[in-house]
Amino acid sequence: MITPTYQTLTTGTDLFGVRLNPATGFKGLFSNQSFDEGEELFTFSVRSLHQKPTYLTVQIDEKTHFEFEPEFLQYMNHHCDPNVHLDLNNFTLVALKPIREGEELHFFYPSTEWKMDRPFACHCGSKKCIGIISGAYALSTTQLANYQLSPYIQQKLGN
Model's pTM, two decimal places? Predict the structure, then answer.
C-alpha cells in the first residue's frame, strides 16, 4: 500500500496543520504536538450563526448552527471512533484519548448534529463504524451511549 503524501496548508497556529491529501483531494486537521486524554486542545468561538445547517456548521439548538472561529477547525473530519469531542459548554476541543504528534483529529458528527445537511456513507474503517452518517436522530440510544454528546443532542434524547 502506498502512503499518501500530505501537503500542509497554513492555520495561523503552531498547534495544528491543515493537510491536503493529493490522492483524494480531501483536507484534514492534524495535530502538531501530542496531547493526553482529557486535555483541552484548543478554545474556539463562533464566527457566524445560521438558522439552517450546512456542511460547515455545528448545531447548538433546534434552529441555531454556527461556523467555527478559527476557520481551520472546519477541517476536522468525522470518525466513528473519534479522538476529540467538542465541549459546547466551554467551547473547547477536548482529547478523548491520547493524541500523537502528526495524528489527524476526528470527531463524531452525530454528537452535535440532530439531522445533517448532507448525509454520507462513512469510510472511517473503524470496527465501530455505523455506516451512514445522517445525524443523531437516526441512531439508537444504545449507539449514542458510546459518545460524548452535545447538550442539545442530550436534550433531544431526554437526558
Answer: 0.89
Residues 33 and 15: their CA atoms lie apart, in Å, by: 6
Specify if 104 maps to a domain.
yes
pLDDT by residue (tens digit) across 57-100?
999 999 999 999 999 999 999 999 999 999 999 999 999 999 99
| Containing structural domain, residue 130 | 7-156
Q: Give the whole-angstrom CA distance, residue 112 versus residue 85.
A: 9
Return the CATH number at 56.
Answer: 2.170.270.10
Q: Is residue 126 part of a domain?
A: yes
Question: What pLDDT does residue 1 have?
Answer: 44
Distance, in Å, from the CA atom of 67 to the CA atom of 49, rounded to the nearest integer, reads: 7
Q: Is the backbone peptide bond immediately before 70 cis, with ω within 30 degrees of 0?
A: yes
- Any domain includes 144: yes
90 Cβ partners below 8 Å, 6+ apart? 40, 43
Question: Average pLDDT for residues 108-116, to the nearest whole number?
Answer: 97
Neighbouring residues of 51: CB distance < 8 A, sequence distance ≥ 6: 63, 64, 65
Spatial distance between the Cα atoms of 5 and 22, rounded to a whole number of angstroms: 7
Say if 1 falls within a structural domain: no
